[in-house]
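Is this the right way to post structure tokens for a design question? Let me know if I should format differently. Anyway, here goes:
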């Protein structure tokens, strides 16, 4: 599953109850964790996730009010609610899927996949970098940014050759669709913009590396 599919997990921090954040992230999902219903509602207003998981048990609540508030904001947003075994009033809980503890992580993953949108065939994924070549956006770890079409093509050209050194003139010729490669300084500027979009610290890039005198290398191991 691509990390482009995003999950909002509303989950408390009570050690005596099962929690699912680490399990979901290990499976490659992009998960935002908040510890209260109010925080979850704020997140939904600002950045709409594809699915919400409400671990009501971890917050010692039925989840009833949280789920209702979520669907008042967006009635089409899928909600998975985690409740205790034998929870009362299940038929009155405003959730698309209700899971009763105990259950395995795999069961939760199966329910999440049922709610996942169709796979984005325009999404290119290499390591932690996801590039949508149609809609011109990139996500890397916790960063998400819109790109110009030119930046999209530049990053795509690097992502199809992960780990390899790409000659700067060849890269310029491919992305700018020109045989003139006498001045590639504009590409250096675009590389700088890409680093702003992808890197945690653009001044000390981890992924988009300069190979002096040669070109650039996307510092990600191929799958």
């Amino acid at each position: 599953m691509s990390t482009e599919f995003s999950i909002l997990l509303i989950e408390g921090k009570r050690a005596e109850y099962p929690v699912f954040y680490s399990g979901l992230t290990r499976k490659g999902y992009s998960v935002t964790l908040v510890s209260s219903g109010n925080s979850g509602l704020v997140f939904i207003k600002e950045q709409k996730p594809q699915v919400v998981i409400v671990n009501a048990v971890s917050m010692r609540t039925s989840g009833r009010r949280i789920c209702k508030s979520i669907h008042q904001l967006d009635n089409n947003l899928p909600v998975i609610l985690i409740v205790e075994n034998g929870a009362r009033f299940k038929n009155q809980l405003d959730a698309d899927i209700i899971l009763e503890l105990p259950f395995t992580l795999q069961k939760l993953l199966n329910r999440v996949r049922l709610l996942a949108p169709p796979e984005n065939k325009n999404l290119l994924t290499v390591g932690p970098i996801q590039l949508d070549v149609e809609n011109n956006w990139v996500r890397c770890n916790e960063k998400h940014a819109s790109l110009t079409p030119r930046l999209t093509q530049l990053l795509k050209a690097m992502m199809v050759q992960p780990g390899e050194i790409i000659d700067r003139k060849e890269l310029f010729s491919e992305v700018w669709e020109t045989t003139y490669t006498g001045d590639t300084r504009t590409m250096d500027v675009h590389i700088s913009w890409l680093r702003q979009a992808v890197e945690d610290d653009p001044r000390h890039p981890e992924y988009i590396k300069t190979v002096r005198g040669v070109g650039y290398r996307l510092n990600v191991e191929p799958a």
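Format looks fine. Someone answered above. Worth noting: The mean pLDDT is 86. The domain at 123-218 is CATH 1.10.10.10 (Arc Repressor Mutant, subunit A).
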